[in-house]
Amino acid sequence: SFSPTESPVMAPELGNIGTNRIPVPVTEGQTTLIGALENSSPAPPLPNPLRLTQIIRQARNGSCARNNPRGRRIAYTPQDGYFGRDRCTYEICDSRGMCGNVELFVLVEPGETETPTESPSVTPTRSPNGDPTMHPSMFPTLAPSDSPTSGPTSEPALQPVINNYGKPRDRVRVEFNATTRLRVLETSKAAEGQGPLFIFNITEPARQGTCEITVRELRIDYTPRDFFDDRCSYLVCDQRNQCAQATLYIRVSLFEPSSQPSGSPTLPPVPTVSPKPSGETLSPTGEPTGQAPDPSIRPRYVKL
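^ thats the sequence. predicted structure below, dont judge the formating
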């Protein structure tokens, strides 16, 4: 007889809450409850409930916490006075002990400031006047001003300036058989008050190597596989999720970073001449040539 084989244990499908590009909006100064399991589903056979077990990586500009023992919601609280993007990582497990990590992306927005009205009066208002108002005036209330206005009341949203790193005819040189970390954001500039910029993702991978975004999303690590010119494209965003694409142009070389030519010729060392002893003259090489000539003796000229 054949013994039944054990069926493989399936892992649950886990999904992040929000993304870098479309984070979950939360209000500054308040604790927001967010469904931690909204984009995740358990593996069959069911029932196989999921739950949030622990916070793996805490938020940088706030705090994430489990809201109840069942682990179905996560509570995010931003730091006082902070506005902008934040995220944290937490663990989700099913009833069979299969676990995985999920990220929560949030965007802290300012709350609506309501201007309080004056305290209500208990005194009734005056009785309405039945007399009609005066006939309208035929003259405008204010004469037009000759000076120009101060400009539109609402300024258009400023856009970041996103530029390529390197050019097709002036590529960035990297060393073969090594991984080079490139500061690709140096050629781009965030709009005023909307920085810093960050690299969202790689939109077009390299063909002759690999382009990988670093952990802090500020640089790209390039590793070549051959000596061909290469390139990759990436998406750069600011804190309002205003994004644009840029391209990194690469040339693979065999140079060593420490042995690159400086651009100026190396001069030979200048010979050192020791001090002249009294009564001796020195040759350019520093060797004594004999007694110094007597200035009182005039040279004689011999006719040949």
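Residues 257-282 have pLDDT under 50 and may be disordered.
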